[in-house]
UniProtKB/TrEMBL annotation:
Keywords: DNA-binding. This is AcrR family transcriptional regulator. Residues 176-236 form the HTH tetR-type domain. It comes from the Bacteria. It comes from Haloactinomyces albus. Residues 199-218 bind DNA. Signal peptide: none annotated. GO terms for molecular function: DNA-binding transcription factor activity; transcription cis-regulatory region binding.
Length: 370
């Protein structure tokens, strides 16, 4: 609270005249970012749907902090306040589902619900990067991204939540060594509670040992966090190499990467929670290394997309890649929406079906076919 007070030029005690504490201030901040979306989507219908789509893209840039506020900070809110935030989020997602049905006749309720959550992921994806375009171009690109999701063909069927993750997790509990058990337990606990709220004793208890015994395998809790992140990054790197080696061309490689990534985060969504929300708890050098690896991974996707679609400039390609990855990340966290085929389809639409803005040194294109 003292940092906030200093930023606005008042004493910390003055803030408490308006809020009870930091949690209430955070709740008000998140609700303040969500409320304009709730109001925009209230009562959407076929006659105003096109206007809402355009306005949605504008608001996504006006409220670019929303994604980070929700995923990194709102997870620390507890009790009734958390339920209030979740209800506001559900209202936004429900309104986005209504928007898809207003624009796309014939969508079923479940398909519309899924697309609504994908739209939320897409319009909040700029929160996770610093890529930019001229404002008008960025709004047009976001508008086309929204339309690409809305206009996808109707889903033929929808599988239930991926059961492979549960199976592999059960096998892992019995087949890996204690170090692996500790990594799995730490991943789950850090993802569920946040790094700061988890103790070494909690992690030890999760695998049936005392807290001090954990230090036989890891030097510190920070070391455990670094190992969790390194393990996930290693999987992504190996899968990237395997996919590139077996792909016929850039389009084939991106499609395969989208599927493997969606499958990985569906089975291990805790890793993504940690990568998005807990990297700042690493020491400086480790934090820099983790961020650098993330950037390099995304750079590979961007290079492939520009090879497949040379009409895209680097910023536009990066924005599309981040959106596709954010959809996969968010759908993995939403257990009832873990349909890999559907997530891959939306990712491909974002990568291949969004028209390119005119490139300074290339012709305008309507994109590739997914």
């Amino acid at each position: 609270m003292s940092d906030i007070a200093e930023e606005v030029g008042v004493r910390p005690s003055a803030l408490y005249r308006h809020v009870d504490g930091k949690q209430q201030l955070l709740v008000r901040a998140v609700l303040g970012e969500l409320r304009p979306f709730v109001e925009l989507l209230d009562g959407v219908h076929a006659e105003n749907a096109d206007r809402v789509v355009v306005r949605l893209a504008t608001m996504a840039l006006e409220h670019r902090r929303l994604g980070v506020l929700w995923q990194r900070e709102a997870r620390n809110v507890t009790g009734q306040a958390r339920e209030e935030l979740k209800e506001a989020l559900r209202r936004v997602a429900s309104g986005l589902g209504d928007l898809t049905r207003a624009c796309h006749a014939g969508l079923g309720a479940e398909d519309a619900r899924f697309r609504g959550w994908c739209l939320f992921s897409t319009v909040t994806s700029p929160s996770y990067h610093r890529l930019d375009l001229p404002r008008a171009d960025f709004e047009v690109l976001l508008t086309e991204m929204v339309r690409a999701i809305i206009e996808r063909p109707v889903l033929a069927s929808r599988s239930t939540a991926n059961e492979a993750g549960a199976v592999s997790e059960n096998v892992a509990r019995h087949r890996v060594a204690r170090r692996g058990l500790l990594l799995s337990a730490a991943t789950r606990l850090f993802a569920e509670r946040g790094y700061a709220a988890v103790t070494i004793e909690d992690i030890g208890a999760a695998v049936g040992i005392t807290g001090p015994s954990v230090y036989s395998h890891f030097a510190s809790k920070q070391d455990l966090l670094a190992s969790v992140i390194t393990r996930g990054e290693a999987w992504l790197e190996v899968e990237l190499e395997r996919t590139l080696a077996g792909a016929h061309d850039a389009v084939d490689a991106l499609g395969a990467l989208m599927r493997s990534y969606a499958g990985f985060v569906s089975e291990d969504s805790g890793f993504i929670d940690i990568l998005v929300g807990e990297v700042d708890h690493l020491p400086g050098s480790e934090r820099h290394r983790a961020r650098q690896i993330q950037r390099e991974y995304v750079t590979e996707w961007v290079a492939l997309l520009r090879e497949a679609r040379p009409e895209l400039d680097e910023s536009a390609a990066g924005i599309l890649v981040h959106a596709a990855l954010t959809v996969a990340n968010d759908m993995a966290r939403t257990g009832s929406l873990r349909d890999i085929d559907a997530v891959v389809g939306v990712g491909r639409s974002l990568l291949f079906d969004v028209p390119a803005r005119p490139c300074p040194d290339g012709p305008e294109s309507s994109g590739a076919t997914s």
